[in-house]
Amino acid sequence: xxxxxxxxxxxxxxxxxxxxxxxxxxxxxxxxxxxxxxxxxxxxxxxxxxxxxxx
Amino acid sequence: xxxxxxxxxxxxxxxxxxxxxxxxxxxxxxxxxxxxxxxxxxxxxxxxxxxxxxxxxxxxxxxxxxxxxxxxxxxxxxxxxxxxxxxxxxxxxxxxxxxxxxxxxxxxxxxxxxxxxxxxxxxxxxxxxxxxxxxxxxxxxxxxxxxxxxxxxxxxxxxxxxxxxxxxxxxxxxxxxxxxxxxxxxxxxxxxxxxxxxxxxxxxxxxxxxxxxxxxxxxxxxxxxxxxxxxxxxxxxxxxxxxxxxxxxxxxxxxxxxxxxxxxxxxxxxxxxxxxxxxxxxxxxxxxxxxxxxxxxxxxxxxxxxxxxxxxxxxxxxxxxxxxxxxxxxxxxxxxxxxxxxxxxxxxxxxxxxxxxxxxxxxxxxxxxxxxxxxxxxxxxxxxxxxxxxxx
Lengths: 55, 392
Known about the structure:
The structure holds two protein chains of two kinds. By secondary structure, chain A is mostly loops. Chain A is 0% helix and 4% strand. Chains A and B meet through β1 of A and β1 and β5 of B. β1 of chain A pairs antiparallel with β1 of chain B, so a sheet runs across the interface.
């Protein structure tokens, strides 16, 4: 429900200061981090990790 | 002189027309509209994320109803359709009563035994959502206020054993087309969108290995339903279906789209973006002829894809690269790749503010990053919905 304890509800913007985050945390991309994971199986005809990718 | 007078008249008409449109909007709306137009030339960026409460997200198709500005997400992890106010990026609630994830003893398995999967909203504000065991549920949203505790006004059986999957609406012939991808052979089921919502016919695809996204094309031969149909051995096609007699639908032609038979989105000038499997580049084809316009080499497959008329771009999430590709819908040129997260394969956009919604799944052993938690401070291993837009 909007505004519950877990933060459900409103948009949390990328440039809002968060706990344990540097004071300036403007999002500037993740570099190559996603490709470093070994490439997650894609959709359509491929294995999906723990069924999270569902056609 | 004559040309000068005509010029003045045209200029005056243009000014009057602009003034008339502007006068209908308040100052704040006018400023927002002007800003949005200016922002279209600026890059699309991740602007934030929305947390969805309950169990970890396990989602499939999403849809933005442009008339009401609401985003709907078929979300089996919580056995419901999550609803977000796309104008204000605010989670509103959940329409419940669906099956959820397939149980361990379900012969269909966890995925093909799950629901909801596909969602679409008709112009009379009815939500049609598919469910497990071949069911389709219809909800009247006209008086559905948050937190959206609504019951279905109809539950329709397509007759399939496993899930009813993706779904499309043909407003001309008043029918819904639903995919039954695991039937043998895979089927499209045609249901009347008028009460009492009878099943009118079934469209079998004997050589297919699924039935993916139905998309209504109002300008093709007076209106045709297009459907992506994945085949065996790397085959794929877009079927063109005439539903003028919905009790006897006719597959008029098929466009061959090798390796591509998942997501489908229609832009202007009959440009169709087709999502591909196996990490293959997505393709843009001509909806009139089926001819390839361009393969977008920088993209790496997609399940659901979306055309946003607000900025004339296609959006295509890829679980393979954990990114969202942005594609110019006129030329098919690759514009950029946006960082996303685990399991991205669902996308929808609100053309009024050009906000693009992409749900991100919880981390897995193979993809351990949890940006919903590390970037936004949301609870770990839950997932969230990323929101992108043009820079302000």
